[in-house]
Every structure is written in C-alpha cells, then in structure tokens.
C-alpha cells in the first residue's frame, strides 16, 4: 500500500507560472497589447497557442526558450522535498496534473534531474513544428462546468485511480499539493482519509476556506504549506505511522 502524491506544477513545484515566464523571450520581454487582450476566460491554452506563434514569428527558437525556462526558480523547499520523495519511491507514487505543457515540464524536471521522481505527468501536449514554432493542444475534453475547457484535474485523477484499480493497486492516502483555482475541483473529490495541501496565500487556500464559510467544507483534511520542507515533514509523519 502506497501513498499517492498529486502535484500541480506552476506556483507549486516552480515558484512562478511557466506560461507567463516564457514571455521573457519576447522582444522587450513583453507581448503586444492586442495579443494580451485576446485571452478569454477558460481558454488559456488557445491563448498560449497564439503567444507561441507570436514568439516563433519573432524568431524565438527552441534553445533560447529552453535556456529561459530552465532558469525558473523552484518554490522554497521544493528541491529538498523532491529529493526526499525520490529516495522513498517505494512508499510514494507521484504524479503531476498541470495546465502547463509537456515541453516546459520536461525541460525543467530533466535539467534538475527530477523526472524520475514522477510516475506520470498529465498536461497539455506541446511540440515544435518543422519551422521551429512551439504548438500546444488541449489535454482532453470534459463536461465539468467548473474547469477550463482544456483540463479538468478531477477527471484526470479519477481516471488515473480507476486505471490503478484495474491493475490491482489502491492507495492508503492521497495527498494533493497545489495552489490554484483549478485545483479545487480535484480537492472536492478527495475523501475523509486524504489530505489537501494548498499553498499559503494562494487561490486554492482561499477557495477551500470559502467553502467552509459556506458550510460545505471539503471532506479531506487540509494542511496549508508555504515551503516544501513543511510538506516533507508531513510525509515523514505518514511514514512513521
């Protein structure tokens, strides 16, 4: 019996948003207003497709994007936490569910040598075209009214757990570590023995506390964190039990 650790990526593993970080590659490190204003709520991936097309059209190539992306800082304590999980993989299965993309996450994890810590990464598929332009697609389709149209993290988590059950594996506890509004949907799916770990001061923490005020609290335990070291302390407690 293992523990399942579910991580968001932006503002959770890394201390920034990978999609906005890449704008550092743009001329004068900013996007034209008309491109910035083209974003529609719930359609972030379509918007990023236009951003990547703009960067490609300005001659920004893969090596420059990779250099920029691998300079993004990890969240405080996250390197220690991922080292700890990597040394205790017999107790932990570890996945990422993120609204970033496969290329950015792959670069960052491989450069820091953390790709072996994670069993699977669920995120929007991205690839470079023959002309060197980065393209991105929606992760899947779903019918959840609460989530952006390209990704319902709850659906991803449910399907992952169903697949594991078919293979005869279930988990002692799920620990969900995230920060954003789109992490609330999977957190409401967690059960009594599970734990949600929202990052202190970020949207997920505020939304969970709002649910409690509305007298419809989440079923799982909630532990707020501000450093990966606090998450590591909790995981060490789980191993002692």
Automatic annotation (TrEMBL):
<dbReference type="InterPro" id="IPR023214">
    <property type="entry name" value="HAD_sf"/>
</dbReference>
<dbReference type="GO" id="GO:0046872">
    <property type="term" value="F:metal ion binding"/>
</dbReference>
<dbReference type="InterPro" id="IPR036412">
    <property type="entry name" value="HAD-like_sf"/>
</dbReference>
<feature type="active site" description="Nucleophile">
    <location>
        <position position="8"/>
    </location>
</feature>
<comment type="similarity">
    <text>Belongs to the HAD-like hydrolase superfamily. PHOSPHO family.</text>
</comment>
<feature type="binding site">
    <location>
        <position position="99"/>
    </location>
    <ligand>
        <name>substrate</name>
    </ligand>
</feature>
<dbReference type="InterPro" id="IPR016965">
    <property type="entry name" value="Pase_PHOSPHO-typ"/>
</dbReference>
<feature type="binding site">
    <location>
        <position position="8"/>
    </location>
    <ligand>
        <name>Mg(2+)</name>
    </ligand>
</feature>
<dbReference type="Pfam" id="PF06888">
    <property type="entry name" value="Put_Phosphatase"/>
</dbReference>
<feature type="binding site">
    <location>
        <position position="10"/>
    </location>
    <ligand>
        <name>Mg(2+)</name>
    </ligand>
</feature>
<feature type="binding site">
    <location>
        <position position="179"/>
    </location>
    <ligand>
        <name>Mg(2+)</name>
    </ligand>
</feature>
<keyword id="KW-0460">Magnesium</keyword>
<keyword id="KW-0479">Metal-binding</keyword>
<feature type="binding site">
    <location>
        <position position="19"/>
    </location>
    <ligand>
        <name>substrate</name>
    </ligand>
</feature>
<protein>
    <submittedName>
        <fullName>PHOP2 phosphatase</fullName>
    </submittedName>
</protein>
<dbReference type="InterPro" id="IPR006384">
    <property type="entry name" value="HAD_hydro_PyrdxlP_Pase-like"/>
</dbReference>
<dbReference type="GO" id="GO:0016791">
    <property type="term" value="F:phosphatase activity"/>
</dbReference>
<feature type="active site" description="Proton donor">
    <location>
        <position position="10"/>
    </location>
</feature>
<keyword id="KW-0378">Hydrolase</keyword>
């Amino acid at each position: 019996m293992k523990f399942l650790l579910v991580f968001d990526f932006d503002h959770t593993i890394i201390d920034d948003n990978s999609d906005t970080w890449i704008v550092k590659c743009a001329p004068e490190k900013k996007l034209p207003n008309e491109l910035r204003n083209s974003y529609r709520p719930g359609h972030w991936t379509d918007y990023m497709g236009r951003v990547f097309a703009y960067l490609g059209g300005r001659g920004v190539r893969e090596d420059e994007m990779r250099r920029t992306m691998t300079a993004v800082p990890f969240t405080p304590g996250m390197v220690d936490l991922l080292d700890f999980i990597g040394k205790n993989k017999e107790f932990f299965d570890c996945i990422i569910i993120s609204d970033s993309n496969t290329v950015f996450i792959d670069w960052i994890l491989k450069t820091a040598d953390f790709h072996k810590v994670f069993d699977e990464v669920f995120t929007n598929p991205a690839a470079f075209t023959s002309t060197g332009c980065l393209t991105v697609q929606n992760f899947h389709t779903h019918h959840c009214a609460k989530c952006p149209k390209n990704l319902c993290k709850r659906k991803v988590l449910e399907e992952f757990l169903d697949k594991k059950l078919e293979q005869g594996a279930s988990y002692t506890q799920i620990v969900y570590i995230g920060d954003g509004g789109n992490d609330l949907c999977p957190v409401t799916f967690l059960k009594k023995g599970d734990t949600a770990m929202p990052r202190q001061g970020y949207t997920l923490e505020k939304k969970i506390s709002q649910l409690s005020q509305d007298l419809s609290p989440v079923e799982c335990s909630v532990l707020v964190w501000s450093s990966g070291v606090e998450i590591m302390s909790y995981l060490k407690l789980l191993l002692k039990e």
